[in-house]
Amino acid sequence: MSDSDLVPLMYRAQIEDRGKIQYAGDPVPATQWVNEWLDGCPPNANSQEDNVNIRQAVVRTTPQRRGNFTYRMPQLATGDDTWQKTYTISWRLVTNSGQDEDVIRPVIGAKGIPFYPGSSMKGAFLRACLQIAPDKVLDFCGGEVEEIIAGKKLKRTKPGILRFHGGYPVDMSWGKDRERLVDVVHSQEKRQVIENINTGANVQISLYKARFKFGISSLKDNVDWNLVQQIWELALSEGLGSRTSAGYGRFKNVADSSKVILSVNLSGKGLTSTLLTSDDKGNKIPEFRPNMFKAALRGHTLRLLAGMTNEVTAQRLTKELWGGFLQGNEESGSIVGKFGIDLQVENLAFGEHKYSSNGRRSRPMPLYNLKSGRLDIFAVKSYSEQERDFLTLLIKFSLLLGGFGKSWRRVHHDLFYQSYFQKNDKPMIGCHWLFNKPSESADYCITAPRGELDNIKTFLASIPDSVRNCFNLPSTNNYVNNWREVWHPQRVQVWGRIAESKDDSQAVEWFHKENFIKRTELTGSIGRFSKVSRIWHRMYPLYVKVDGKVIHKKNEDGNYKYVELLTIFTPDNLPKAREFLTFLNSKNNDFTKLWGGN
Q1: What band does 220 get if pLDDT is binned at 50, 70 and 90?
Q2: Orientation angle between helical segments 291-306 and 311-322, nearest 10 degrees
């Protein structure tokens, strides 16, 4: 052990073999960083509200030792005595201290306690105040005023009457599950849409479902604290910190419905994402991550635009809608997108899929079951009515042909191919999403009257002109021809059929049939040299309208019916795709081509 090993990573230079924690390997260096950080903090409290002195010896994992100390959690009196409220983060809060190169981690104060700076509070409050009470901005937050002195017009700074003391966790429970503090950022957009290359994951440190109190005081007594609270809760409803458009920094029970453009009630099940860290048993930490919805919508936006215009325009318009960093010949910097997502989780359960591989028990695969939730798309800044129409099209497209999260290109095998698990030796595959309240989401459901596929066929045929109209793109045959997945009739085909029940999928067995399409360049593979599939397989509920209500249709035996859909991306240099399309064109199956292949 060298002398440098005695220095915590937090104080080392962010270079290789020193303190660089921006590495998603195994073990994860960020785990050591977090352990050293928390070992220097006050111990986790047993009480929910830790406003008492804590005295305890703390021993670091490094040879350093820390003696007894006394620490009192900040006791913030916000406004008058009637407003002493705790706010809970819905998922995660990420703020950037800006102190470490290439690593996003919280602002850390005395005794290692993370906090939300008062300066950031004031900025969020000011933006909200401009919306609710613009005439109070100068009084509350201060600013420049003009005065005439000796006949001259001069500017001076007027201080506001409010003081913003920052936000602090109400107790030490934020550090109880220290493995969850190591967050992961892993964009799949380039790999799934543009080219099949592995993209590295990055780590960041973020707070998971912590509870906060925020301090606001005043120099004067006659303050309308009800108005101050209303303004601050509007600021909270728009999110604090970074990446609020992807579900970060949102707080429970303070949503602002006026910013919501559209809402969809969903339910779904599938494989839970996992963090980079592991628990005491060596299993990866599962986490249901709302940012997967923005990732899916953003990816589909890029696919659709790539089929209507050139590469530069497709990427620029996608960034204008969803945000992103400027690259290449573009100006440096970032773009704040027009839209963001927020997921209101109403009923979420977790489970495990256990199986054996080669006679040995494999690690359980974590599963989620969102029985009830609401996906909101909200406005970050002004947008056009055409862009609003595009969001409606995007929701229809996403729910019709695919899903969200891990393994979204495949149907949920436990629902639609149960015989696959007869020997308990197969991993879980796929996901399944549907409208939880179809009648309330009628604008986004595609119904199939009398069991026909006409409405789906019409919708697919309308996509090119609809997208062009939304973005004022010319009606030309200009498209990106060198990406993996491009929504253009020469690059993709959609096939469909009616399945009489969940056990009536014809295609699911094809993905597991040797000497057919299993583990080919068409269906992809996993492992060291993994390849992303070029087929999306979906069992879309067969929705019909009955007496003005949208319902999931049943057959004569009382089983739910589905529309089985195959979306196949078919570049000319992929012989297996052409071979499979020839098979679909034969009489050996019930599939009908619904779009593409011009």
Answers
A1: confident
A2: 150
pLDDT of residue 317: 96
Which of 25-39, 549-563, 564-578 holds the top average pLDDT?
Answer: 549-563
Go through 532-570 and write b for each residue having 16 or more CB atoms within 10 A of its CB, e for each that does not. Answer: bbbbbbbbbbbbbbeeeebbebeeeeeebbbbbbbbbbb
Q: Which residue is associated with the tokens 């963090």?
A: 275
Quote the CA–CA distance of 275 and 203 in Å, as a whole number: 10
Q: pLDDT tens digit string along 267-284?
A: 999 999 988 888 877 788
Phi/psi class of residue 38: alpha, beta or left (left: φ > 0; alpha: ψ in -120 to 50)? Answer: alpha
Phi, psi (rounded to 5 degrees) for 568? -125, 120
Q: Is residue 264 within 8 Å of residue 435, measured between CB atoms?
A: yes
φ, ψ of residue 124 to 5 degrees: the values are -65, -40
Question: Residue 266 has which token pair?
Answer: 């969903």
Query: What average pLDDT does range 80-102 have in this prediction?
Result: 80
Q: What percent of the residues of the chain are helix, what percent strand, and what percent coil, each to the nearest 5?
A: 30, 30, 45
Q: How many CB atoms lie within 10 A of CB 10?
A: 17
Taken in order 101, 106, 112, 115, the sign of the CA dihedral is: positive
Q: What is the predicted pLDDT for the residue at 513?
A: 92
- Which whole-number Å values give the CA distances from 413 to 285, 419, 502, 503, in the listed order? 23, 9, 10, 10
Q: What is the 3-state secondary structure (H, E, C) of 78-141?
A: CCCCCCCCCEEECCEECCCCCCCCCCECCCECHHHCECECHHHHHHHHHHHHHHHCHHHHHHHH
Segment 190-216 shows an average pLDDT of 87
Task: Measure the CA–CA gap between 553 and 447, rounded to whole angstroms.
Answer: 10
Instruction: State pTM to two decimals.
Output: 0.90
CA distances, 233 to each of 124, 132, 331 (Å): 10, 11, 35
CA distance 433 to 51: 44
CA angle 61, 66, 68 (to 5 degrees): 130
